[in-house]
């Protein structure tokens, strides 16, 4: 699984917004998974936007983006654990109410998402706080385990 939500920056105004991908599958469970990523990242994405907007030179803008990318990478398992908890719960619940002929597909999705959940939850570290403060300044020290 790769993170399909991106913190997109508009070069003219530097606004950070999450762009939803076109769903590859209509199931609400996939949407719950992606919504969890969005909720995990959106506050920091807005702060990235402030960092990006406040700097006029290209080098500083790149530094903002690099810090964002480093943070996303370092919190990957934390966010995937949370997202797979949401989608696994949905798929596993789905197999209890679906039609009998659809049950094997729901069971397969439930099993797959539970395995991914377990894999990421075992690897997760405590969440690192966003590398930007509320004003878009780059933090010099990122503390593990604090909220954004």
Describe this structure as you would to a colleague.
The chain is built from four helices and two strands; from the N terminus they run E-E-H-H-H-H. The chain has 148 residues and is mainly alpha-helical. It has a two-stranded antiparallel ribbon with strand order 1-2. The chain starts with 5 loop residues before the first strand and ends in a 25-residue tail after the last helix. The N terminus is likely disordered.
Helix-strand category = mainly alpha
Radius of gyration: 18 Å
* Major sheet details: 2 strands, antiparallel
The pLDDT mean sits at 79
Order of helices and strands: EEHHHH
Note the gap between the termini.
Answer: 24 Å
Number of helices: 4
Number of DSSP-assigned strands:
2
Overall, the morphology is: elongated
Poorly predicted runs are: 1-6, 8-26
- Overall helicity: 55-70%
The main sheet orders its strands as 1-2
Strand content: 5-15%
Structure, briefly:
The protein has 148 residues and is mainly alpha-helical.
Brief descriptors of the model:
mainly alpha, disordered N terminus, two-stranded antiparallel ribbon, 2 strands, 4 helices, 148 residues, single chain
């Amino acid at each position: 699984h790769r993170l399909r939500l991106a913190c997109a920056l508009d070069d003219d105004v530097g606004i950070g917004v999450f762009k939803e991908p076109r769903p590859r599958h209509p199931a609400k469970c996939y949407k719950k998974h992606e919504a969890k990523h969005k909720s995990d990242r959106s506050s920091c994405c807005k702060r990235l936007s402030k960092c990006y907007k406040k700097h006029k030179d290209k080098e500083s803008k790149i530094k903002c983006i690099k810090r964002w990318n480093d943070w996303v990478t370092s919190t990957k398992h934390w966010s995937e654990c949370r997202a797979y908890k949401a989608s696994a719960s949905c798929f596993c619940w789905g197999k209890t109410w679906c039609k009998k002929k659809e049950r094997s597909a729901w069971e397969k999705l439930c099993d797959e998402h539970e395995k991914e959940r377990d894999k990421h939850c075992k690897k997760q570290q405590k969440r690192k706080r966003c590398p930007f403060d509320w004003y878009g300044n780059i933090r010099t020290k990122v503390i593990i385990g604090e909220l954004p």
